[in-house]
Amino acid sequence: MDFGLSEDQELLDQTVRRFLEERLPIARVREVVESGDGIDRGAWQALAELGVAGALVPETFGGAGLALLDAAVVATALGHGAAPLPFVGSAVLATLLLRDVADGELQTRWLPALAGGGARMGVAAAERVEARQDAGVVEDADGLSGTALFVLDGQGADAYWVLCGDDAHFVRAGAPGLGVKPLPTIDRTRWLVELDLRDVVPDASFRGVGAAIDRVLDAGRVVLAADILGSCDRALSLSVDYALARKQFGRPIATFQAVKHMCAEMAAAIEPARSLVWYAAHAWDALPAEAALTATLCKAHLSEVGHDVMRTATQVHGGIGFTDACDLQFWFKREGLSRQLLGGPGRLRAHAAALQGLG
């Protein structure tokens, strides 16, 4: 049995990484985040032409029709590059909601646009995931009202998915009563927004689809875990490079036993996590009975691994790794946001216990 990536998946990984090295080196990432936009539209369009934006879009709608493991491969590469691109929210969550929840009319109109990079969508899932009592969106006879926080890929989106309990609502940008404002976080490579809804009438509503929503959120957790994995890979690489270049007492700090141990500990934590991400992505498509639990535990574990790796990488950098002057800060902060999106490790472990009838 083959437990590695296929040749096509390895080629996909190499293609995306090479593209990011050429189009989005860290100097370009700095330019994008400092512009306040948070998205490199030209790079996203070019990736769409390579099939990345439509990775999960069925071929009948102009996409690549790939599996979640392929999307995880892409996410790992994007995390490695700290790419300011709308992948998790628009290319994964929104695409899967259109594919698995929406009806034919919405699919025909929007899936080809997403696959071609001509449209982007935000997804408001935070209140549903966190089961917030002090905020969120409610529906009455006049429409949707309330506040949706931490909307993924909402900056400049053409439409939004608003998830309320077991219902999914599709709202176009510019709908009457819909307000959108940036919601800055520590991670400037991915801009979130806050939606203010005041009697907003959705373009479409899909009710009683809680099971399908849960499955889409599980996919999002796996892809976020893959993004963390890529961030960890880059943090280790940066740490090794820094240790080889930085000198103390007339020799590189890479020759010090303590620094060697820190780098080895990072590598030892990352490698088994890589296998877990691959398995969780595979299970989502091929092993539905295991998919929810595996996705939940995968995201929880990668969040903890990412936290430890970033802390150790910062120590290797002498404590300056999280400052703006150091490139490592992009991955340090990106992992910090990914850790909390779609549920932090504590909440996810409680959810895993509930899935097993223990909560």
Furnish the topology, listing elements before pairings.
Blueprint: H1 7-23, H2 26-34, H3 41-49, H4 68-80, H5 87-100, H6 104-115, E1 121-124, H7 126-130, E2 136-140, E3 143-151, E4 159-164, E5 167-172, E6 178-183, E7 192-200, E8 204-206, H8 210-245, E9 247-248, E10 251-252, H9 257-286, H10 288-316, H11 328-340, H12 345-355
Parallel strand pairs: 1-4
Antiparallel strand pairs: 2-3, 3-7, 4-5, 5-8, 6-7, 9-10
How are the strands of the largest sheet arranged? 1-4-5-8
Mean pLDDT: 93
- The radius of gyration computed from the alpha-carbon positions, rounded to a whole number of angstroms, is 20 Å
Largest sheet: 4 strands, mixed
Number of domains: 3
Classified by CATH, the class of the largest domain is Mainly Alpha
Provide a quick synopsis of the model:
The protein is an alpha+beta fold and 359 residues long.
Highlighted features:
359 residues; alpha+beta; Butyryl-Coa Dehydrogenase, subunit A, domain 1; Butyryl-CoA Dehydrogenase, subunit A, domain 2; Butyryl-CoA Dehydrogenase, subunit A, domain 3; 3 domains; 10 strands; 55% helix
Give an overview in words.
The model has no long low-confidence stretch (mean pLDDT 93). Helix content is 55%, strand content 14%. It is globular, with a radius of gyration of 20 Å. Helix 8 packs antiparallel against helix 11 (328-340), helix 10 (288-316) packs antiparallel against helix 11 (328-340) and helix 10 runs antiparallel to helix 12 (345-355). It is of the alpha+beta class and 359 residues long. It has 3 domains: 7-115, Butyryl-Coa Dehydrogenase, subunit A, domain 1 (Orthogonal Bundle), CATH 1.10.540.10; 121-209, Butyryl-CoA Dehydrogenase, subunit A, domain 2; 211-355, Butyryl-CoA Dehydrogenase, subunit A, domain 3.
